[in-house]
């Protein structure tokens, strides 16, 4: 990105100071930034002390063979012990770990740390009796039910790396992941509840298992949780009911201490092209990163907070901020099975009210869809318990940030816009709620211990006020260790662009404002070139979303004979705006021209009912580019709802 990049976002000048109460009692204070800079390794050693180690490390970081890092070398620990047993041993066994809320109303369950310890131990014993040994991979394909958390921790407890596959993924997607990591066992359920109805899961596992077998890989056992009670096909040689195997197992299980670098899990990224990448995370460094950031960025007070992260466990956010971070920290949290609008649109706010949620973490896509519905819905609930709000997954448009803070947070709550990736394992860039004066739309600064920069093509830091590539300049404990089975691809994908400098680069562009604060602009592949000007999709989208009739917008560059690429926008209107009126398109074009400049004016604006999104809420712009360039729409298998593309194409064909 060059200096020509337009700077609409940087015109944003609203600031939100931390509330005095949070500032005065903050877990991490401003001094931590300098302290971490002065001696990074000492700082990270201090953070690792948050965990219980069986054997302490003798070296914090081994970076002798970059980019292959080893953290807390020589140390040994058990991740499940750290997430469960130690809280029970410290006398907190009766504390609720999970307030689980099923989608069917009244289907709920509170699970204490002591109960969690028993269930995890039983599941660990059951896995061992099914033949799972340390180092074997176990795939987990489950809805958002407590067994999903139990299954992950049971794997961690016996040192069998898990790979959680999102329950909405197809049999094909599951099969390719089973093959890639050679999973020995799959843990699934008969089905789960989605929008008020049971939907099946087991048939996809049967199909995936058959596909994998066709490729020469045998899944030995399938452990099946009964959730909906629907009929399932059964293979007596392979299938085992969870309630039989786990229910009958002993609650005694002694956790073994594993090497700090023992593989904890493989998480496949939804990569838009090519074979999915199995991102490998290991034990000591990952758990340190997840625990430290969850404590620092959300200012967690385990005795009084009720924390809720709305992410699915099939996404890295569910791993770090629903399982490993909060449980390592002994938090009490909410886990919700269903969709935000089931049985009615106020469900999430009802849950916040019922459980007195104090910290809430969700994605911009959800916030924008609530904006679309209007504030009357959240206004019906008492959400005065909330004290901190978080955002993750995409750049949050300033308008969405302000709405979130205002309507959901009652103007009291800091909003932490947290930038990180599957690969980074934990939050890298974020405000600290008791320290940072937040700017809507900016992830602000790297957290203490993390070193990030925005650099130009030559790898040199750009001056304040300019844009470039977002890089991490020093290794960090929760960094990915490799791509499962493919060290070369690991080096090529993340470490080759700035090999000379030794920087990690994973595809995002960003800008530094005049204060040096970071504004993440999204993937560099999403940058457009219009008549030689480089424009970022995020900026134009944010300009559109700042129009009062617009709820959500996606912008792509489509080939154009005159300008190289032209701006095409897909826009969802707020419900109160109806169809927007006859001049809506002209009105929006004018708005963008005023907000950014003539160069950014969309050639085309299409009003659509929905946008194509991945399960983690990221807009799949490649599919919209297909529409804008009148091509057949490409692969839609990783969409949350694959019918969305039909809706969009039909609306456009009928001239709406
Ligand atoms: C945690 C997660 C990673 C990509 C990342 C970036 C985008 C995530 C963001 C953000 C701007 C934020 N992203 N958080 N962009 N501001 N606060 O989302 O992991 O699914 O691997 O996606 O998401 O583009 O590179 P993952």
From TrEMBL:
Q: Which GO terms describe its molecular function?
A: acetate-CoA ligase activity
Residues involved in Mg(2+) binding: 545, 547, 550
Q: Which cofactor does it need?
A: Mg(2+)
| Alphabetic keyword roster | Acetylation, ATP-binding, Ligase, Magnesium, Metal-binding, Nucleotide-binding
**Ranges of residues in domain AMP-binding enzyme C-terminal:** 539-618
Acetyl-coenzyme A synthetase N-terminal domain ranges (all copies): 31-83
Domain (AMP-dependent synthetase/ligase) spans 90-476
Q: Where does ATP bind?
A: 393-395, 417-422, 508, 523, 534
| Chemical reaction(s) catalysed | acetate + ATP + CoA = acetyl-CoA + AMP + diphosphate
**Acetylation: is it a keyword of this entry?**
yes
* Family annotation (NCBIfam families): Ac_CoA_lig_AcsA, PRK00174.1
* Function text: Catalyzes the conversion of acetate into acetyl-CoA (AcCoA), an essential intermediate at the junction of anabolic and catabolic pathways. AcsA undergoes a two-step reaction. In the first half reaction, AcsA combines acetate with ATP to form acetyl-adenylate (AcAMP) intermediate. In the second half reaction, it can then transfer the acetyl group from AcAMP to the sulfhydryl group of CoA, forming the product AcCoA.
Protein name (database record): Acetyl-coenzyme A synthetase
Question: From which source organism is this entry?
Answer: Nocardioides mangrovi
- Gene behind this chain? acs
């Amino acid at each position: 990105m060059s200096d020509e990049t337009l700077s609409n976002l940087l015109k944003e000048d609203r600031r939100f100071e931390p509330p005095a109460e949070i500032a005065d009692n903050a877990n991490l204070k401003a001094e931590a930034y300098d302290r971490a800079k002065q001696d990074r390794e000492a700082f990270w050693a201090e953070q690792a002390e948050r965990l219980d180690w069986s054997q302490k490390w003798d070296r914090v970081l081994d970076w002798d063979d970059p980019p292959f890092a080893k953290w807390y070398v020589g140390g040994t620990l058990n991740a499940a012990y750290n997430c469960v047993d130690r809280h029970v041993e410290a006398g907190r066994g009766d504390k609720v770990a999970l307030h689980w809320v099923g989608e069917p109303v009244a289907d709920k369950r509170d699970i204490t740390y002591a109960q969690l310890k028993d269930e995890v131990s039983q599941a660990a014993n059951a896995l061992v009796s099914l033949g799972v040994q340390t180092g074997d991979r176990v795939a987990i394909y489950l809805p958002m039910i407590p067994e999903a958390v139990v299954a992950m921790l049971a794997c961690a407890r016996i040192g069998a790396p898990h790979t959680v596959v999102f329950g909405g993924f197809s049999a094909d997607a599951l099969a390719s992941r089973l093959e890639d990591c050679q999973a020995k066992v799959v843990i699934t359920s008969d089905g789960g509840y989605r929008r008020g109805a049971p939907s099946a899961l087991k048939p996809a596992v049967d199909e995936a298992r058959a596909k994998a077998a066709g490729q020469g890989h045998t899944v030995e056992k399938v452990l099946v949780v009964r959730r909906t009670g629907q009929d399932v096909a059964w293979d007596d040689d392979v299938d085992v009911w969870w309630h039989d195997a786990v229910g009958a197992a002993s609650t005694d299980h002694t956790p073994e201490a594993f090497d700090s670098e023992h593989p904890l899990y493989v998480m496949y990224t939804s990569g838009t092209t090519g074979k999915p990448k199995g991102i490998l995370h290991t034990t000591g460094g990952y758990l340190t990163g997840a625990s430290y950031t969850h404590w620092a960025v959300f200012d967690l007070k385990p005795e009084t907070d009720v924390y809720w992260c709305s992410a699915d466990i099939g996404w890295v956010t569910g791993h770090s901020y629903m399982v490993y971070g909060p449980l390592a920290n002994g938090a009490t949290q909410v886990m919700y099975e269903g969709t935000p609008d089931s049985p009615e649109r106020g469900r999430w706010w009802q849950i916040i009210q019922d459980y007195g949620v104090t910290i809430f973490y969700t994605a911009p896509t959800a916030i924008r869809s609530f904006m679309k519905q209007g504030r009357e819905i959240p206004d019906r609930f008492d959400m005065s318990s909330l004290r901190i709000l978080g955002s993750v997954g995409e750049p949050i448009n300033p308008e969405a940030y302000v709405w979130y803070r205002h309507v959901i947070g009652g103007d009291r709550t800091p909003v932490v816009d947290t930038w990180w990736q599957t690969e980074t394992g934990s939050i890298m860039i974020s405000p600290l709620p008791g320290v940072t004066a937040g700017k809507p739309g900016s992830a602000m600064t790297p957290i203490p211990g993390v070193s990030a920069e925005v650099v130009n093509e030559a790898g040199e830091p750009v001056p304040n006020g300019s844009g470039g590539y977002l890089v991490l300049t020093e290794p960090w404990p929760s960094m990915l260790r490799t791509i499962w089975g493919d060290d070369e691809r690991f080096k090529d994908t993340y470490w080759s662009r700035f090999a000379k400098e030794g920087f990690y680069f994973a595809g995002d562009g960003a800008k530094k404002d005049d204060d040096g604060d970071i504004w993440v602009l999204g993937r560099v592949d999403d940058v457009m070139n219009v008549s030689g000007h480089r424009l970022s999709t995020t900026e134009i989208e944010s300009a559109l979303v700042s129009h009062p009739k617009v709820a959500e917008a996606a912008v792509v560059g489509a080939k154009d004979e005159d300008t190289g690429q032209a701006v095409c926008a897909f826009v969802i209107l707020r419900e109160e705006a109806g169809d927007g009126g006859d001049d809506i398109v002209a009105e929006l074009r004018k708005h963008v021209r005023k907000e950014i400049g003539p160069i950014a004016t969309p050639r085309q604006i299409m009003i659509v009912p929905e946008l194509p999104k991945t399960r983690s809420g990221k807009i799949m712009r490649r599919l919209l580019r297909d529409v804008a360039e009148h091509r057949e729409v490409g692969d839609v298998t990783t969409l949350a709802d694959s019918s969305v593309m039909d809706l969009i194409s039909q609306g456009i064909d009928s001239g709406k």
